[in-house]
Amino acid sequence: MTVPESTYRVQLRPEFTFADAAGIAGYLRDLGIGALYASPVLDAAPGSTHGYDVVDPTQARPALGGEAARQELSALLKELGLGLVVDIVPNHMSVEVPKVNRWWWDVLKHGRDSEYAAFFDVDWERGPLLLPVLGDDDAVGELTVEGDELVYYDHRFPIAPGTGTGTPQEVHERQHYRLIGWRRGNAELTYRRFFDITNLAGVRVEDPKVFAETHGEVLRWVADGDVTGLRVDHPDGLADPGGYFRRLRENAPDAWIVAEKILHPGEPLPQSWPVDGTTGYDALREIAGVFVDPDGEPGFTELANELGVQTGYHRVEAEARRLVTDRILVAEVRRIAALLPDVDPEQARQAVAETMIAFPVYRSYLPEGASHWAAAIAGAREARPDLADALARLDTAVRENPESELATRLQQTSGMVVAKGTEDTTFYRYTRFAALNEVGGNPDRFGLGVEEFHRLAAEREAGYPAAMTTLTTHDTKRSEDTRARMAVLAEVPGEFAEALRRWTARRGIDEPSLNLLAWQTLVSTWPIEPSRLRDYLDKAAKEAKLRTSWTDHDEAFEADVAAWPEDVVNNAELAADVEAFVQRIEGPGYANSLGQKLVQLTAPGVPDVYQGTELWDFSLVDPDNRRPVDYVARREILARITDGELPEIDASGAAKLLVVHKALRLRREHPALFRGYRPLRAEGPAAAHCLAYTRSPDLAVAVTRLPVGLEAGGGWRDTVLPLPAGVWTDVLTGREVTGDLATLFDRYPVALLVRGDV
């Protein structure tokens, strides 16, 4: 099996192609990376900036350079000794432009008689396919016929053979599909989709033929040695994730395979999955959490309550999930409920909805995870005792036949409810302390203790040493450095609360949760361009679905939110006050950034570096985190570092690139050092501010945590880190060191130590 020592994630798009990726391959090798990790590379919807909207899985995306450019990139990576990890999307395909998806086009043209009808998860028993592309109503007066196509503005659809005569409306009525108002989609859709995105139709990869057709090209690349690893997107949306991974492993026995599985704290990865681990959100939660001061919780809870922000996390989460089941995924819930026999349809719908609302994790994988299913049923019964009979029938039906369509669809959909309700709604409503509001996060738990971190790291080394670890991805709500600076606020809750009161009095946002989120975001990304912050807050407001949403707009509120960044920046006195506060937390934020990065790069697992984050990167949620990366600047800084420069910790971010480069090179050149895990515990008055461990007996890592409290307590004083006997050298500075922490951390707040002549 080809397990990379590390990966570097690049976001391919028409503006950054296979050739552009080849152009940075030498830099990645010099940085110390083990494998290029690419976003989806199969043909995607026209103009796609991310590639998750695949339209043709049988060819490399022409907009990226096509097959020839892919082969050139693969050849170069092999020559440089780098692997290639490719992101694949088995759950769905784009149908936004029907004509570019030949399978979907054929289904629309021939209906259930299409040779591709079984490729998509369509409920044919409910009649023609419903396509929600019309305006607010179902008026089809704008339909025209052009040749063998039905046209609605810029939407084109095929006309079935022999049905093209008469008025456009008459032609429309004879097709295997019906164009309906877009608002009807959430309630009446007749095909499974990706979350609530009607342009992404679910694909039935549980069918061996569909699997072969959708995976054949990528698996050919694996067999040829061009692709060494696979990152699998959203397996929870599949009918049988375990069966899928077993088939994938059979066809790619030597590939490194990681699953984008979001694990709840304490939830294990299903043991039957033949994968190397997750894509690392569990590691992100643990690494970021150990840099958050739990003593800050009372102050932030008090501030949130004072401002009118809800602080009962589970209540907020339940309300958000219910919004999803009752308004956003109505069609999916009704389709499941219809499979529950001998139960009143409305009772069945409510029972299904309440069960998914109560899920303690994203989904179960019956018969695995039976305890999670039991907990969901128990939670639903507690919330709705009036549904006891319907819930009992649902429980019995699922337990007695876990492979039934009812059980399968319910498990498929529960993950959608959790993701939409928690990640995409609750995280924008429950804004008490936004650094915790991360994919796979646990916002109601303020930080992670050092001893628990050690336990979880040791478990990863024992169980999934080849799992990916990450701090930033294309899906994170904010980048690692934004989160690291935000974590400092937990050490100064009183100062932040006092400042926020002043700032809000000058220019607040008239929605408490967004107001609190906005100020946390501003100080964590300062100085940020007002346009970037405007776009972020617009998305945050709509995801929260409190004062406005993507579908029901409050134009006046949105205008006020859009004006907020400029109003703050252009108010000289207010902006100066914000900047003064940022100067207070900026240095500790840098320390947190370096600490969590060195931990991620050296702790158990395969570390991924998201594009550009080898320097400071204060990004927000997509699409902000897909901005172009300046590789010229990074090459220049790397060249200075390889020439021996030890950069200062300043706004350039060069100190972070030093840490990334030194850790990655050591990991690639001496992989045997990164085996095993054992805690190291500092001793002395500031011991709680040091997180340390060994991997092999000849490698030790030590980082600073909670730097504000450390300084307030008088620094390291006589705190020591008892190192095993021998001569130890700090790889970052090149000097011999002892366990005296005041000396060890006098240049950088982190240390990467090797013993002997390594």
Automatic annotation (TrEMBL):
<dbReference type="InterPro" id="IPR006047">
    <property type="entry name" value="GH13_cat_dom"/>
</dbReference>
<dbReference type="InterPro" id="IPR012767">
    <property type="entry name" value="Trehalose_TreY"/>
</dbReference>
<dbReference type="InterPro" id="IPR017853">
    <property type="entry name" value="GH"/>
</dbReference>
<dbReference type="Pfam" id="PF00128">
    <property type="entry name" value="Alpha-amylase"/>
</dbReference>
<protein>
    <submittedName>
        <fullName>Malto-oligosyltrehalose synthase</fullName>
    </submittedName>
</protein>
<dbReference type="InterPro" id="IPR013797">
    <property type="entry name" value="Maltooligo_trehalose_synth_4"/>
</dbReference>
<feature type="domain" description="Glycosyl hydrolase family 13 catalytic">
    <location>
        <begin position="1"/>
        <end position="384"/>
    </location>
</feature>
